[in-house]
Amino acid sequence: MPFRSHRFSLGTRLFLSAAFCCVLILVLAGVGLTTFYRRSAERGFDERLSVYIKQLVADLAAPPETERQTVGDLGEPRFDLPLTGWYWQIVRLDGERPTIRSSRSLVGGQLPKLLDQDIAPNSRGLRESYVSGPDDRLLRILEREIDVGEDGRFTVAVAAPADEIEGDIQDFRFALTMTFVLLGLILVASTLVQVRFGLRPLVRLRAAVGTVRTGEAPRILGDYPPDLAPLAGELNQLIDTNREILE
User: Fold this and answer.
1) Which of 1, 40, 128, 196 is deepest in the core (most CB within 10 A)?
2) 125-137 as b/e, with b when 16 or more CB fall inside 10 Å?
3) What is the mean pLDDT of residues 100-123?
């Protein structure tokens, strides 16, 4: 059956249009806030990873060769346990064959190089992306390319499970959904109250016209808002004119 808007009363139209606008605004606001929170969560997570990259870069740039034996000692046990999702990798780019050093957690695997994927570095010189890890786990990875002079050029990468970001986002989305559902119900209820209150003069005018039609009153009685008072006056003039014609 085709949709026919003229079947709906004025109050129903006002209520449905207001409720639709409320729901639309809440949905758009929810999408916008979730997108903003995702970016914020990624930035916060990247800050944690960039700290480890800075420490690895500092270890590589240490002058004495003996100090470089401690490369990768980041004080984080998850880099030492197998397939935890927390990995670091250092690849020497110059030389006949690339030299790769990595965390114990990689257990002989390798992280993909963002340098080979034509990902442009950000303002801090870091490449960032999502990649699939050795156990097909989605990882958030940061990579930096450094040049330590005679000692060569390296890419330093640190990766961590992306589900930590997704977990925070899911918690935020759930809390936001519950808040917006409650807010939406309150807005819809307040809209219903406003529509009923706003249309009350029309209901009174309709009742007054009914009393004239049934003969209970000679004219439309009562006080009405400024936008309805002229209509009531016009109806009274029409009633008086018809009465004069009949007489």
Assistant:
1) 128
2) ebbbeebebbeee
3) 85
